[in-house]
Specification:
Layout: E1 2-5, H1 13-33, E2 40-44, H2 51-57, E3 69-72, E4 92-96, H3 101-112, E5 116-121, H4 126-136, E6 139-142, H5 150-157, E7 162-167, H6 182-205, E8 209-218, H7 221-225, H8 231-255, E9 258-264, H9 270-273, H10 277-285, H11 295-306, E10 317-320
Parallel strand pairs: 1-2, 2-3, 4-5, 4-7, 5-6, 7-8, 8-9, 9-10
Bound molecules: nicotinamide-adenine-dinucleotide (NAD).
Nicotinamide-adenine-dinucleotide binds near residues 125 and 267.
Length: about 325
Amino acid sequence: MLVLGAPLDPADHHQAAAQQALEGFTRSLGKEIGRGRTVNLVRLTDASAAESTLRFLLSPKSAYVSGQVIEVGTPQEPEGAPDGDRPLTGRTALVTGAARGIGEAVAETLARDGARVVVLDVPGAEQDARRVADRLGGTALLLDITAADAGARIAEALPDGLDLLVHNAGITRDRRLVNMPAERWIPVLEVNLASVLRTTDALLKAGALRRGGRIVATASIAGLAGNAGQTNYGASKAGIVGLVRSLAPRALAEHGVTVNAVAPGFIETRMTAAVPLFIREAGRRMNSLAQGGLPVDVAETIAWLAHPGSGAVNGQVVRVCGQSLLGA
Ligand SMILES: NC(=O)c1ccc[n+]([C@@H]2O[C@H](COP(=O)([O-])OP(=O)(O)OC[C@H]3O[C@@H](n4cnc5c(N)ncnc54)[C@H](O)[C@@H]3O)[C@@H](O)[C@H]2O)c1
Protein backbone atom coordinates (compact mmCIF):
# COMPACT_ATOMS: atom_id res chain seq x y z
CA MET A 1 0.00 0.00 0.00
CA LEU A 2 1.18 3.50 -0.75
CA VAL A 3 0.32 6.75 1.06
CA LEU A 4 0.99 9.99 -0.82
CA GLY A 5 1.85 13.22 0.99
CA ALA A 6 3.78 16.44 0.58
CA PRO A 7 6.98 17.80 2.19
CA LEU A 8 6.49 19.52 5.54
CA ASP A 9 6.09 23.28 5.19
CA PRO A 10 8.15 25.02 7.93
CA ALA A 11 6.01 28.16 7.49
CA ASP A 12 2.65 26.40 8.06
CA HIS A 13 2.28 24.38 11.28
CA HIS A 14 -1.20 23.10 10.32
CA GLN A 15 0.14 21.67 7.07
CA ALA A 16 3.19 20.26 8.88
CA ALA A 17 0.99 18.61 11.51
CA ALA A 18 -1.17 16.99 8.86
CA GLN A 19 1.81 15.77 6.87
CA GLN A 20 3.62 14.43 9.94
CA ALA A 21 0.38 12.67 10.92
CA LEU A 22 0.65 10.68 7.70
CA GLU A 23 3.97 9.32 8.94
CA GLY A 24 2.47 8.01 12.18
CA PHE A 25 -0.48 6.62 10.22
CA THR A 26 1.80 4.81 7.75
CA ARG A 27 4.08 3.30 10.38
CA SER A 28 1.15 2.17 12.53
CA LEU A 29 -0.71 0.65 9.61
CA GLY A 30 2.48 -1.17 8.58
CA LYS A 31 2.48 -2.86 11.99
CA GLU A 32 -1.21 -3.79 11.69
CA ILE A 33 -1.60 -4.96 8.16
CA GLY A 34 0.38 -8.23 8.23
CA ARG A 35 0.34 -11.11 5.75
CA GLY A 36 3.40 -9.92 3.89
CA ARG A 37 1.86 -6.58 2.96
CA THR A 38 3.83 -3.35 3.11
CA VAL A 39 2.86 0.32 3.64
CA ASN A 40 5.09 3.25 2.67
CA LEU A 41 4.68 7.03 2.50
CA VAL A 42 5.98 9.08 -0.43
CA ARG A 43 6.27 12.84 0.02
CA LEU A 44 5.99 14.34 -3.44
CA THR A 45 7.10 17.75 -4.63
CA ASP A 46 6.72 17.15 -8.34
CA ALA A 47 4.51 14.20 -9.31
CA SER A 48 6.18 14.00 -12.73
CA ALA A 49 9.43 12.92 -11.02
CA ALA A 50 7.88 10.05 -9.10
CA GLU A 51 7.30 7.29 -11.64
CA SER A 52 10.33 5.11 -10.86
CA THR A 53 9.65 5.41 -7.13
CA LEU A 54 5.97 4.53 -7.39
CA ARG A 55 6.74 1.61 -9.72
CA PHE A 56 9.31 0.28 -7.25
CA LEU A 57 7.07 0.62 -4.20
CA LEU A 58 4.08 -0.95 -5.95
CA SER A 59 6.08 -3.94 -7.20
CA PRO A 60 7.35 -7.11 -5.47
CA LYS A 61 10.83 -5.60 -5.75
CA SER A 62 10.10 -3.66 -2.55
CA ALA A 63 8.74 -6.71 -0.68
CA TYR A 64 11.02 -6.07 2.34
CA VAL A 65 10.59 -2.25 2.40
CA SER A 66 7.83 -1.17 4.77
CA GLY A 67 7.04 1.72 7.11
CA GLN A 68 9.34 4.01 5.11
CA VAL A 69 8.97 7.71 4.36
CA ILE A 70 10.59 8.68 1.07
CA GLU A 71 10.91 12.22 -0.26
CA VAL A 72 10.83 12.73 -4.00
CA GLY A 73 12.01 16.23 -4.89
CA THR A 74 12.41 18.00 -8.19
CA PRO A 75 14.81 16.47 -10.71
CA GLN A 76 17.73 18.71 -11.64
CA GLU A 77 18.52 17.19 -15.00
CA PRO A 78 15.85 16.47 -17.60
CA GLU A 79 15.38 12.69 -17.60
CA GLY A 80 15.76 10.84 -20.88
CA ALA A 81 13.47 7.89 -21.62
CA PRO A 82 15.45 4.84 -20.41
CA ASP A 83 15.13 1.42 -21.98
CA GLY A 84 12.22 -0.19 -20.07
CA ASP A 85 13.81 -3.60 -19.47
CA ARG A 86 17.44 -2.51 -19.22
CA PRO A 87 17.32 1.05 -17.86
CA LEU A 88 21.02 1.09 -16.94
CA THR A 89 22.26 0.30 -20.44
CA GLY A 90 25.47 2.23 -21.17
CA ARG A 91 26.17 2.84 -17.48
CA THR A 92 29.12 1.60 -15.48
CA ALA A 93 28.58 0.48 -11.89
CA LEU A 94 31.26 -0.16 -9.28
CA VAL A 95 30.13 -2.23 -6.29
CA THR A 96 32.49 -2.66 -3.33
CA GLY A 97 32.45 -5.95 -1.45
CA ALA A 98 30.70 -7.62 -4.37
CA ALA A 99 32.36 -11.05 -4.21
CA ARG A 100 29.50 -12.42 -2.11
CA GLY A 101 26.42 -11.59 -0.03
CA ILE A 102 24.50 -8.37 -0.60
CA GLY A 103 27.21 -6.91 -2.87
CA GLU A 104 27.02 -9.90 -5.21
CA ALA A 105 23.24 -9.51 -5.45
CA VAL A 106 23.63 -5.78 -6.14
CA ALA A 107 26.12 -6.43 -8.96
CA GLU A 108 23.80 -9.08 -10.40
CA THR A 109 20.74 -6.82 -10.27
CA LEU A 110 22.52 -3.81 -11.80
CA ALA A 111 23.88 -6.09 -14.56
CA ARG A 112 20.36 -7.42 -15.16
CA ASP A 113 19.27 -3.80 -15.64
CA GLY A 114 21.97 -3.32 -18.27
CA ALA A 115 24.91 -1.87 -16.36
CA ARG A 116 28.50 -2.91 -16.94
CA VAL A 117 29.62 -3.97 -13.48
CA VAL A 118 32.96 -3.75 -11.73
CA VAL A 119 33.18 -6.20 -8.84
CA LEU A 120 35.52 -4.75 -6.22
CA ASP A 121 36.70 -6.91 -3.33
CA VAL A 122 39.82 -7.65 -1.30
CA PRO A 123 42.62 -9.64 -3.00
CA GLY A 124 41.84 -12.53 -0.61
CA ALA A 125 38.41 -12.87 -2.25
CA GLU A 126 39.89 -13.07 -5.77
CA GLN A 127 38.31 -16.39 -6.71
CA ASP A 128 34.78 -15.31 -5.72
CA ALA A 129 35.19 -11.83 -7.22
CA ARG A 130 36.30 -13.28 -10.57
CA ARG A 131 33.50 -15.85 -10.51
CA VAL A 132 30.90 -13.09 -9.99
CA ALA A 133 32.46 -10.78 -12.58
CA ASP A 134 32.71 -13.56 -15.20
CA ARG A 135 29.12 -14.65 -14.63
CA LEU A 136 27.89 -11.06 -15.11
CA GLY A 137 30.17 -10.19 -18.04
CA GLY A 138 31.89 -7.57 -15.87
CA THR A 139 35.36 -7.11 -14.47
CA ALA A 140 36.92 -7.74 -11.06
CA LEU A 141 38.94 -5.09 -9.26
CA LEU A 142 40.98 -6.59 -6.42
CA LEU A 143 41.59 -3.85 -3.95
CA ASP A 144 41.34 -3.31 -0.21
CA ILE A 145 39.00 -0.33 -0.04
CA THR A 146 40.84 0.97 3.05
CA ALA A 147 44.02 1.58 1.01
CA ALA A 148 44.90 5.28 1.13
CA ASP A 149 45.00 5.39 -2.69
CA ALA A 150 41.82 3.33 -3.29
CA GLY A 151 40.01 6.25 -4.96
CA ALA A 152 42.95 6.91 -7.30
CA ARG A 153 43.19 3.22 -8.19
CA ILE A 154 39.46 3.06 -9.00
CA ALA A 155 39.76 6.17 -11.18
CA GLU A 156 42.78 4.61 -12.91
CA ALA A 157 40.90 1.34 -13.54
CA LEU A 158 37.96 3.29 -15.02
CA PRO A 159 39.51 5.99 -17.21
CA ASP A 160 36.15 6.76 -18.85
CA GLY A 161 34.57 7.35 -15.44
CA LEU A 162 31.63 5.65 -13.77
CA ASP A 163 27.92 6.29 -13.23
CA LEU A 164 27.04 4.23 -10.18
CA LEU A 165 29.16 3.93 -7.07
CA VAL A 166 27.80 1.47 -4.51
CA HIS A 167 29.62 1.46 -1.17
CA ASN A 168 28.64 -1.97 0.10
CA ALA A 169 31.82 -3.45 1.66
CA GLY A 170 31.37 -3.70 5.40
CA ILE A 171 32.55 -5.70 8.39
CA THR A 172 31.51 -6.33 11.99
CA ARG A 173 33.78 -6.90 15.01
CA ASP A 174 31.20 -7.07 17.79
CA ARG A 175 32.10 -6.57 21.45
CA ARG A 176 30.56 -4.52 24.27
CA LEU A 177 32.35 -1.20 24.64
CA VAL A 178 33.95 -2.17 27.98
CA ASN A 179 35.73 -5.05 26.20
CA MET A 180 36.38 -3.29 22.90
CA PRO A 181 40.07 -3.19 22.03
CA ALA A 182 41.31 -0.73 19.40
CA GLU A 183 41.95 -3.72 17.08
CA ARG A 184 38.19 -4.28 16.85
CA TRP A 185 37.18 -0.63 16.76
CA ILE A 186 39.55 0.74 14.13
CA PRO A 187 38.98 -1.73 11.25
CA VAL A 188 35.19 -1.33 11.47
CA LEU A 189 35.40 2.46 11.31
CA GLU A 190 38.01 2.20 8.52
CA VAL A 191 36.11 -0.21 6.24
CA ASN A 192 32.57 0.98 6.92
CA LEU A 193 33.05 4.74 7.11
CA ALA A 194 36.52 6.27 6.60
CA SER A 195 37.11 4.46 3.30
CA VAL A 196 33.66 5.53 2.06
CA LEU A 197 34.49 9.17 2.87
CA ARG A 198 37.95 8.95 1.27
CA THR A 199 36.92 7.21 -1.97
CA THR A 200 33.81 9.36 -2.41
CA ASP A 201 35.85 12.55 -2.00
CA ALA A 202 38.62 11.31 -4.30
CA LEU A 203 36.25 10.21 -7.07
CA LEU A 204 34.14 13.39 -6.93
CA LYS A 205 37.28 15.54 -6.90
CA ALA A 206 38.71 13.65 -9.88
CA GLY A 207 35.42 14.18 -11.77
CA ALA A 208 35.23 10.38 -12.15
CA LEU A 209 31.47 10.30 -11.50
CA ARG A 210 29.57 11.31 -14.60
CA ARG A 211 26.61 13.72 -14.42
CA GLY A 212 23.38 11.85 -13.77
CA GLY A 213 25.43 9.50 -11.60
CA ARG A 214 24.47 7.88 -8.33
CA ILE A 215 26.25 7.19 -5.08
CA VAL A 216 24.54 4.68 -2.81
CA ALA A 217 26.08 3.78 0.54
CA THR A 218 25.12 0.95 2.84
CA ALA A 219 24.13 1.93 6.36
CA SER A 220 22.31 -0.41 8.76
CA ILE A 221 19.41 -0.25 11.17
CA ALA A 222 22.10 -0.69 13.85
CA GLY A 223 23.27 2.80 12.89
CA LEU A 224 19.77 4.21 13.30
CA ALA A 225 18.48 2.40 16.37
CA GLY A 226 21.74 1.29 18.05
CA ASN A 227 22.57 -2.29 18.96
CA ALA A 228 24.24 -3.73 22.07
CA GLY A 229 27.71 -5.03 21.24
CA GLN A 230 27.96 -2.84 18.15
CA THR A 231 29.12 0.61 19.28
CA ASN A 232 31.83 0.45 16.59
CA TYR A 233 29.50 -0.78 13.85
CA GLY A 234 26.60 1.49 14.93
CA ALA A 235 28.92 4.52 14.93
CA SER A 236 30.25 3.66 11.47
CA LYS A 237 26.81 3.18 9.98
CA ALA A 238 25.36 6.31 11.63
CA GLY A 239 28.32 8.14 10.10
CA ILE A 240 27.10 7.00 6.67
CA VAL A 241 23.75 8.65 7.35
CA GLY A 242 25.50 11.92 8.26
CA LEU A 243 27.61 11.72 5.11
CA VAL A 244 24.56 11.19 2.92
CA ARG A 245 22.46 13.96 4.44
CA SER A 246 25.27 16.52 4.24
CA LEU A 247 26.73 15.62 0.85
CA ALA A 248 23.51 14.97 -1.10
CA PRO A 249 22.46 18.57 -1.87
CA ARG A 250 26.03 19.65 -2.74
CA ALA A 251 26.83 16.61 -4.87
CA LEU A 252 23.64 17.17 -6.85
CA ALA A 253 24.26 20.89 -7.30
CA GLU A 254 27.97 20.59 -8.14
CA HIS A 255 28.24 17.23 -9.90
CA GLY A 256 24.68 16.26 -10.90
CA VAL A 257 25.06 13.13 -8.76
CA THR A 258 22.56 11.90 -6.15
CA VAL A 259 23.67 10.44 -2.82
CA ASN A 260 21.43 8.06 -0.88
CA ALA A 261 21.76 5.22 1.60
CA VAL A 262 20.06 1.92 2.16
CA ALA A 263 19.82 0.68 5.74
CA PRO A 264 19.33 -3.08 5.75
CA GLY A 265 17.77 -4.88 8.70
CA PHE A 266 18.23 -8.62 9.08
CA ILE A 267 19.37 -9.95 5.71
CA GLU A 268 20.30 -13.63 5.24
CA THR A 269 24.03 -13.58 4.42
CA ARG A 270 27.27 -15.03 5.76
CA MET A 271 27.47 -11.96 8.07
CA THR A 272 24.17 -12.80 9.79
CA ALA A 273 24.79 -16.58 9.66
CA ALA A 274 27.66 -15.91 12.10
CA VAL A 275 25.29 -14.36 14.69
CA PRO A 276 24.53 -16.68 17.67
CA LEU A 277 21.35 -18.74 17.12
CA PHE A 278 19.06 -17.05 19.67
CA ILE A 279 19.94 -13.50 18.58
CA ARG A 280 19.72 -14.55 14.94
CA GLU A 281 16.20 -15.96 15.34
CA ALA A 282 15.09 -12.81 17.21
CA GLY A 283 16.63 -10.59 14.51
CA ARG A 284 14.83 -12.54 11.82
CA ARG A 285 11.40 -12.27 13.44
CA MET A 286 11.36 -8.82 15.07
CA ASN A 287 9.79 -6.94 12.18
CA SER A 288 6.34 -6.40 10.72
CA LEU A 289 6.88 -9.11 8.10
CA ALA A 290 8.17 -11.60 10.74
CA GLN A 291 10.96 -12.89 8.51
CA GLY A 292 14.48 -12.07 7.37
CA GLY A 293 15.17 -10.30 4.11
CA LEU A 294 17.26 -11.56 1.21
CA PRO A 295 20.23 -9.86 -0.48
CA VAL A 296 18.03 -9.30 -3.53
CA ASP A 297 15.71 -7.08 -1.43
CA VAL A 298 18.58 -4.66 -0.80
CA ALA A 299 19.76 -5.03 -4.39
CA GLU A 300 16.38 -4.08 -5.85
CA THR A 301 16.26 -1.01 -3.60
CA ILE A 302 19.66 0.08 -4.90
CA ALA A 303 18.55 -0.62 -8.49
CA TRP A 304 15.59 1.73 -7.94
CA LEU A 305 17.90 4.49 -6.61
CA ALA A 306 20.23 3.85 -9.59
CA HIS A 307 17.42 4.09 -12.13
CA PRO A 308 17.76 7.08 -14.51
CA GLY A 309 14.24 8.15 -13.45
CA SER A 310 15.19 8.39 -9.75
CA GLY A 311 17.18 11.64 -10.01
CA ALA A 312 14.70 13.41 -7.72
CA VAL A 313 15.40 10.99 -4.88
CA ASN A 314 18.33 12.51 -3.04
CA GLY A 315 19.63 12.46 0.53
CA GLN A 316 17.31 9.63 1.53
CA VAL A 317 18.04 6.79 3.93
CA VAL A 318 15.77 3.92 3.01
CA ARG A 319 15.50 1.03 5.41
CA VAL A 320 15.21 -2.44 3.93
CA CYS A 321 14.19 -4.15 7.13
CA GLY A 322 10.58 -5.34 6.88
CA GLN A 323 9.79 -2.48 9.30
CA SER A 324 12.08 -3.77 12.04
CA LEU A 325 10.89 -3.10 15.57
CA LEU A 326 14.34 -1.60 16.24
CA GLY A 327 14.15 2.18 15.91
CA ALA A 328 11.57 4.19 14.00
N1 LIG B 1 23.57 -8.91 6.29
C1 LIG B 1 22.88 -8.04 7.00
O1 LIG B 1 21.91 -8.38 7.67
C2 LIG B 1 23.24 -6.57 6.97
C3 LIG B 1 22.46 -5.71 7.75
C4 LIG B 1 22.75 -4.35 7.73
C5 LIG B 1 23.78 -3.88 6.96
N2 LIG B 1 24.54 -4.75 6.23
C6 LIG B 1 25.64 -4.18 5.46
O2 LIG B 1 25.55 -4.62 4.11
C7 LIG B 1 26.86 -4.72 3.55
C8 LIG B 1 27.07 -6.11 2.98
O3 LIG B 1 26.88 -7.05 4.01
P1 LIG B 1 26.91 -8.63 3.77
O4 LIG B 1 26.01 -9.23 4.79
O5 LIG B 1 26.71 -8.95 2.34
O6 LIG B 1 28.43 -8.95 4.22
P2 LIG B 1 29.42 -10.10 3.77
O7 LIG B 1 30.37 -10.25 4.91
O8 LIG B 1 28.69 -11.32 3.30
O9 LIG B 1 30.17 -9.45 2.51
C9 LIG B 1 30.97 -8.31 2.65
C10 LIG B 1 31.94 -8.23 1.47
O10 LIG B 1 32.76 -7.07 1.67
C11 LIG B 1 34.10 -7.42 1.40
N3 LIG B 1 35.03 -6.54 2.12
C12 LIG B 1 35.26 -6.50 3.46
N4 LIG B 1 36.25 -5.63 3.73
C13 LIG B 1 36.63 -5.11 2.54
C14 LIG B 1 37.62 -4.15 2.17
N5 LIG B 1 38.43 -3.59 3.09
N6 LIG B 1 37.78 -3.84 0.86
C15 LIG B 1 37.00 -4.42 -0.09
N7 LIG B 1 36.04 -5.34 0.22
C16 LIG B 1 35.86 -5.68 1.52
C17 LIG B 1 34.22 -8.86 1.89
O11 LIG B 1 35.36 -9.52 1.34
C18 LIG B 1 32.88 -9.43 1.41
O12 LIG B 1 32.97 -9.94 0.10
C19 LIG B 1 27.83 -4.35 4.68
O13 LIG B 1 28.16 -2.97 4.58
C20 LIG B 1 27.01 -4.60 5.92
O14 LIG B 1 27.46 -3.83 7.02
C21 LIG B 1 24.29 -6.08 6.23
